[in-house]
Amino acid sequence: MSTRLDAEYLDPTPLRVRIDTHRRYSENDHHPTEDVLDALALTGAEALADIGCGDARFLADLVAAGHRGPLVGVDTSPAMVAAARTVPGVAGVLADAERMPFEDGTFDALTARHMLYHVPDPQAALGEFRRTTKPGGAVAIVVNHPHTCPRTAELVAAHASSYGVRPDHSFRASVDSDTLPALMAEVFDSVEVHRSDNALVFESAAPLIRFAESLLGFHGVPADHPDRAAVLEDLRTDVTEWFDAHPGAVWRDPKGYIVAVARTDNV
């Protein structure tokens, strides 16, 4: 992963803001975790690895639901691995998706949610996912649609650019809902795709500002950037003025994702 991406995940707060925003402000029901679990049809006894585990809330939800099998959270961020290790019964592992420290056929199920587009070599990661999943196991991958939430992304990019911040193309998604199925078909024998189309809808300025702030690191304005406070203040003013000038209007930003599930029956 890139240096900027590593910096973005030193603190799990922006990630938590984004997750909370999608949960609270989606136009339609937003349940990617439930979609993954429905696709996998877990019994609760599986050995499961969550690759790019983030703040480990997915694993924590499994534990709370009574999952009995071994659970592993893998991430390249020490902060995220530390979060995984706070969940009872979860092993946190610091590792790259392209080179995972597990034996062949270690897991009954493997999940990689909203992370494959951060991996320099997605195909190598897919090969690792297959290698470490048992015959008869399943791999579930979640990626966004291309240009998810473009309106807010363009807003943040414009304000960053006004302070001379260049676009960071290392954050550009290399894998999305259009390209993932074909990539997986090169590695797995069968792939099922479950699609979700949605949008974020904001009726007031505050939650949009909070969401936009959580994206600043992806646009070259991390927490320690000398102009971050100024960028955020300009952004806050811009969003507030937009809502003042459009009474009763909503800020709508299209988004969506797919859950692609591969079975390893013929490994």
TrEMBL record:
InterPro entries: Methyltransf_11, SAM-dependent_MTases_sf. The keyword Methyltransferase applies. Residues 50-141 form the Methyltransferase type domain. One of its GO terms (biological process) is methylation. One of its GO terms (molecular function) is S-adenosylmethionine-dependent methyltransferase activity. Pfam families: Methyltransf_11. It comes from the Bacteria. Signal peptide: none annotated. SUPFAM superfamilies: S-adenosyl-L-methionine-dependent methyltransferases. Keywords: Methyltransferase, Transferase. This is Methyltransferase domain-containing protein. It comes from Nocardia bovistercoris. The lineage of its organism: Bacteria, Bacillati, Actinomycetota, Actinomycetes, Mycobacteriales.
